[in-house]
Design brief:
The chain is 78% helix and 0% strand. The chain has 4 helices and no strands. It is elongated, with a radius of gyration of 16 Å.
Length: 128
């Protein structure tokens, strides 16, 4: 995990988040029940927050000296978390398989761990 990779992933995640939000607002409104549309909105919302989080981690990377390893872990956990969290919710809405919601909390846990790992990286840093 490098700052460049985090920026690339963050920008792509945000672009796809905007597209997912627009698709939910315009394309899915007539196709799915209101409760599933709310699930879609939740997925897009968390995707946008954590896409920005990836960019934040890339921006903070140089300040997390002497060893940016915790920042790399934080970025990896965040990316994995948003893929599992938002991905499982998108799949649930598109397929109607509600059992997919069972893995969503795993993604949430990974996102929480990513923020805690970033906090740990800041705590260990000499430059902040």
């Amino acid at each position: 995990m490098t700052p460049r990779f985090l920026i690339l992933c963050g920008a792509l995640v945000l672009a796809l988040g905007v597209a997912a939000g627009a698709f939910g607002a315009h394309g899915l409104r007539r196709l799915v029940a209101p409760d599933l549309l709310e699930v879609w909105r939740t997925a897009a919302h968390y995707q946008m927050i954590h896409g920005a989080g990836l960019l934040l981690m890339a921006a903070l990377w140089p300040r997390l000296a002497p060893a940016p390893a915790p920042a790399a872990w934080a970025g990896g956990l965040m990316l994995a978390g948003l893929l599992v969290f938002s991905g499982s919710l998108y799949a649930l809405v598109l397929t109607g398989v509600r059992a997919l919601g069972a893995i969503t909390p795993v993604g949430g846990l990974l996102m929480i761990l990513s923020w805690l790992t970033l906090a740990w990286a800041a705590w260990m840093s000499r430059d902040i």
